[in-house]
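Our consortium's second objective concerns turning raw sequence data into structural hypotheses that experimental partners can test. To show how far this objective has progressed, the report includes one record in full. It was chosen at random from the queue rather than selected for favorable results. The single chain below, 129 residues long, was entered without modification.
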Amino acid sequence: MFLKFSIYMSMVKSAFRKALSLSTNFASQDLLIFLSGQKMIRPFYHTVSDSDLWHIKNLYPIVGVNQFNQDLDFFQKYYSAVDSRYLLAEKSMRGEKTFFLSFDDGLSEFHDVIAPILIKRGIPAVFFC
């Protein structure tokens, strides 16, 4: 009896996941923002590199430069970039769609890869070392 119930629940979970993933393909970004009530997103990265970073590759996935640029394209399409002063002033309740970008781990890729991309795009960010 328990085995049948377990198999049934597994099938239900699988069907639910499939339905949920299909629904996200049809939901617009504005609809998702409306449903979640979240006007500010806070994406964070550890590092960005096209090189094989042997010292961290087993700790977490490394985002490549092309993927990072695609992510930034998405953020800039739907949101406005804000800096830490905006965040600290608690202005995020104004109804504007904003994003606050941060990086963790203080790697040399901040200087060599990430900062030049952000400067070129005019996107502020916080780097934790």
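The partners drew two points from this record. The chain has a mean pLDDT of 82. Helices lie at 2-26, 29-36, 65-78, 84-88, 109-121. Both points have been shared with the crystallography group to help prioritize constructs.
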